């Protein structure tokens, strides 16, 4: 069978990031121009803009060497020693890879292409005093990383062939586009200060376009949204884990990442990509016969159907629920307590609770919120058991509400959504979002 290896090119993305870095510098210059004119930042912005244009033109010649040389000169004149070293390393990579003057170190450059970006990021960390400075550091380091990657791998990165237990390549290249050895993935997340995270978002977005019944997402657009739009990384994680869960179900792999990774993306964001990559690796192994499936994917009941859920009483899209909990300073939490109290009155053999009364007790009586969560989780467990949904929330949420206050509300809403799905014999479709219709 013919194998067509998938390639990834990052030159133009590097140009975009350098252009953004130049714009951020100009923004700082204009912001303080009434007090003084920072000509150093102005000249550096011009140098970065020049480099951005050259990269967007995909020039791999003396013009690129000149553009990086100008950036290196600006770092030497106006920045610290570490910044100059980072730019000098980038200049050396360009000299080796884009010219014929130093062909000998090319093998080394192909292995250590990420070093200039790490040095560049370290040079900017000590100057981070604002959100703009943080964005500048990330875009400058990201542009450097992708520029080096484009130079050392001009045709893109070949995804490593997956090897079975017998040592033979039992998987064709297209089947392992999303595969990454887990230790390597974790190591890159730790040592690249988030830069690998951005590359991984690009790769994972493109890989998950293979999920049937889902629209294609533009990897570049999603990457830029994750960098610059607050809370969008949480949304991307939520939508991507939904796709991973559906992809896993289609090949017989157990996967319930959506809720867990959504919570982790808010509180421990570096853990979610590890779990996501591990699940994708398992899907790839099953697809190519190197791992046993957890269940038969053809055993799905015939009467299960996919329907929209915007009008189902009690349902709330989990990302919307979590975002409202985070940004409304408790207002949505009170609304949700009222709604949940009313919804759980449908549980049989339980006394009727007045939502307004419970809400007032929740607000004004110390520790009543803990009691309300415990009793509501008991009702959810009872309702879940009646609908054939496994649920053991009572003890878990009672403990969590004392440690991480918002997590029980997220788990409770997630379980209610699962109950509604089982009750109506449907597979819940999330509400449509403009960002996903690309």
Helix proportion of residues, in percent? 55-70%
Provide the structure class.
Answer: mainly alpha
What number is the mean pLDDT?
80
Please write the string of helix (H) and strand (E) elements: HHHHHHHHHHHHHEHHHHHHE
- Calculate the terminal CA-CA distance, rounded to whole Å: 33 Å
Count every beta strand, where a strand is a DSSP E run of 2 or more residues: 2
Q: Note poorly predicted spans.
A: 1-8, 158-175, 428-438
Q: Strands across the major sheet, in which order?
A: 1-2
Q: Give the strand content.
A: under 5%
Query: How many helical stretches?
Result: 19
Give me the Rg, rounded: 26 Å
Largest sheet: 2 strands, parallel
Integer count of domains: 3
Overall shape:
elongated
């Amino acid at each position: 069978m013919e194998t067509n290896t998938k390639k990834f090119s990052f030159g133009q993305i590097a140009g975009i990031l350098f252009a953004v870095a130049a714009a951020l510098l100009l923004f700082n210059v204009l912001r303080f121009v009434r007090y003084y004119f920072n000509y150093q930042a102005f000249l550096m912005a011009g140098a970065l803009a020049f480099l951005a244009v050259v990269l967007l033109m995909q020039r791999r010649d003396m013009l690129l060497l000149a553009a990086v040389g100008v950036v290196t000169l600006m770092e030497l004149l106006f920045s610290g020693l570490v910044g100059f070293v980072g730019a000098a390393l980038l200049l050396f990579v360009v000299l080796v890879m884009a010219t014929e003057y130093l062909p000998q170190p090319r093998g080394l450059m192909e292995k250590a292409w990420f070093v200039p970006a790490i040095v560049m990021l370290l040079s900017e960390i000590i100057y981070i005093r604002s959100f703009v400075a943080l964005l500048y550091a990330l875009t400058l380091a990201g542009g450097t990383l992708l520029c080096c990657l484009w130079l050392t791998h001009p045709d893109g990165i070949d995804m490593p062939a997956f090897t079975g237990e017998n040592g033979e390549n039992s998987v064709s290249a297209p089947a392992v586009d999303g595969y990454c050895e887990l230790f390597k993935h974790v190591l890159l997340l730790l040592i690249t200060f988030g830069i690998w995270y951005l590359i991984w978002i690009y790769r994972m977005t493109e890989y998950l376009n293979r999920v049937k019944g889902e629209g294609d997402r533009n990897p570049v657009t999603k990457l830029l949204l994750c960098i610059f739009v607050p809370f969008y990384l949480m949304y991307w994680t939520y939508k991507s884990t939904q796709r991973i869960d559906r992809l896993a179900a289609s090949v017989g792999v157990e996967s319930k990442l959506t809720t867990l990774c959504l919570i982790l993306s808010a509180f421990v964001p570096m853990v979610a990509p590890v779990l996501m990559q591990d699940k994708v690796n398992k899907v790839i192994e099953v697809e190519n016969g190197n791992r046993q499936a957890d269940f038969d994917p053809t055993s799905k009941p015939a009467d299960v159907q996919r329907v929209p859920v915007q009008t189902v009483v009690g349902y709330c899209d989990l990302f919307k629920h979590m975002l409202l909990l985070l940004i409304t300073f408790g207002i949505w939490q009170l609304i949700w307590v009222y709604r949940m109290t009313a919804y759980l009155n449908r549980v049989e053999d339980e006394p009727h609770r007045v939502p307004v009364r419970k809400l007032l007790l929740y607000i004004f009586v110390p520790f009543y919120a803990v009691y309300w969560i415990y009793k509501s989780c008991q009702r959810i467990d009872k309702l879940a058991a009646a609908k054939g949904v496994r649920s053991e929330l009572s003890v878990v949420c009672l403990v969590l509400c004392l440690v991480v206050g918002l997590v029980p509300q997220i788990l409770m809403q997630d379980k209610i959504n699962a109950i509604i799905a089982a009750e109506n014999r449907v597979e819940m479709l999330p509400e449509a979002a403009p960002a996903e219709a690309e």
